[in-house]
Amino acid sequence: MLYYLFRFLEDFNIPGAHLWSYISFRALLAMILALIISAWFGERFIKFLKKKQITEVQRDASIDPFGVKKIGVPSMGGVIIIVAILLPVLLLGRMRNIYLILMIISTIWLGVLGGLDDYIKIFKHNKEGLQGKFKIVGQVGLGLIVGLVMYFSPDAVVRENIAVTKHQTQEVTIKHEPTATKSLKTTIPFVKNHNLDYSDIMSFCGKYKEEAGWILFVIMTILVVTAVSNGANLNDGMDGMCAGVSAIIGVALGIFAYVSSHIEFAAYLDIMYIPGSQELVVFICAFIGALIGFLWYNTYPAQVFMGDTGSLTIGGIIAVCAIIIHKELMLPILCGIFFVESLSVMIQVWYFKLGKRRGVKQRVFRRTPIHDTFRTQDCQLDPECKYLLKGPKTVAHESKITIRFWIVTIILAALTIITLKMR
C-alpha cells in the first residue's frame, strides 16, 4: 500500500518518494519492520497465550539429559511469525505481483492448516493433532494451486538465455529472448547447460509432451511443498532450531530471487531471468526479519514454541519461493537439514517394521528425528532393542546441537549459492 502511495507522490516531486522504486530499499525496510513487529508483538502475544493457558502440555521432558522441563511453555508462536511477515509485505510490496500474491496465499493457507493441528493438540488434548491425511490434503491442495497458477497466469513467465559468446578477454556476453515466455525449465546444480525441461522428460508423450510436462511440473510442485513443509515440521524439536535454520535458508533464497529478477545479473550468471520476481526479495526479507525477531523468544530456554502453525508455514514458504524462481531441484542441498531429518524418520520406521516382521525389536538411530539422537543417553535406550548405530558416546546440550545445525546450514547455503558458477 505504501508503495503505491509514494509512487503517486513521486509524480509531485516529493523528496524521498523515489526511494520506494528501489527494491533494495523496500526489502531492507521490510526486514527491519518485520523484526520490530516480531519482537514487539511477540512479547504481548506470549503474555496473551499464558493468560489463556494456550501452552505446551504434551512435550516429553524425559528426553532432555539435563532435566529441562518445558511443559507449560506457550505454543502457537507461529502466529507471531505470520503476522510479522504479512504486515510489512502488505505495506511495502506491490500487491499486483502474482508471485507476491502466491506467497501470501501460501503463508495464510499453511498457517491455518498448522493452526488447526495446534488447536487439536492443545484444546482437544490430542497429542496426535490433525490427522495426517488431512495435513497431506492441505499440502497437496496448496501445491496444486501454486502449480496451476504458474501454468495459467500470464504474468508467470521467464526470459531464457539463448546465446553465449566469449571474447578474447574471457568476458561473457549473453543475450536473452526478446519476449518473456512460459517455461518448464528448472535449474540443476553442478551441471553445465544446467536447465532441465520437464517436457523433455515427458517426450515419450509425443505431440502432447508440453501438456504432460506441465502435469509433471504440478506433481513436482505438490511433492516439494509437502516434503519441505514436513521437513521443517520435523526439524522444530529444539529451541531456536527451525527458526535459525530457516532464516539462513531464507538468505540464500533471497539472493537467488534477486539475481533472477535482475536482467544483468541473470545474464552474467547464465540463469533464467524472471520478470517480477524482485517482489519475492521483499517477502523473503520480511521472512528473515520475522524469524530473527522470533528467535528473541525462541532461543534456549524458549519462552514460546512456534508449533505447527509456524513450522508448516515456514516450510511452505521456502518450497513455494524455490518453485517460483525455478530452483526447486536445489532444495535437497539448501534444505539438507530438513531432508536428513525426514530421511532419518523414514529409515527408522522402515527398519523397525522390518525387524517386527522377524520378531526382532530393532532401530537404526537412538531417536528420531536425527537431532534427538545427539541428546539421548544410554540409560534412555530400550534394553530389549538392538540399535544399528549406537553413537554418539556423549550427549550434547540442546543449545550446542542447535548452533551446530545452524553452522551446517550455513555451509549448505553457501554451497548452494556457489552452484551458480560451479558448472
- N→C terminal distance: 41 Å
How would you sum up the global shape? globular
Estimated helix fraction: 55-70%
Strand and helix order: HHHHHEEEEHHHHHHHHEEH
How many whole angstroms does the radius of gyration measure? 23 Å
* Beta-strand content estimate: under 5%
Largest sheet: 2 strands, antiparallel
List keywords for this structure.
two-stranded antiparallel sheet; globular; 14 helices; 423 residues; mainly alpha
Give a written overview of the molecule:
This protein has 423 residues and is mainly alpha-helical. It contains 14 helices and six strands. It has helices at residues 2-10, 23-51, 78-92, 98-123, 132-152, 198-201, 209-235, 241-261, 263-269, 278-298, 307-324, 331-334, 336-357, 398-418, and strands at residues 161-166, 172-176, 185-187, 195-197, 362-363, 386-387. Strands 1-2 form a two-stranded antiparallel ribbon. It has a two-stranded antiparallel ribbon with strand order 3-4. Strand 1 and strand 2 (172-176) form a beta hairpin. Helix 3 runs antiparallel to helix 10 (278-298) and helix 8 (241-261) runs parallel beside helix 14 (398-418). The longest helix has 29 residues, at 23-51. It is globular. The two termini are 41 Å apart. The mean pLDDT is 86.
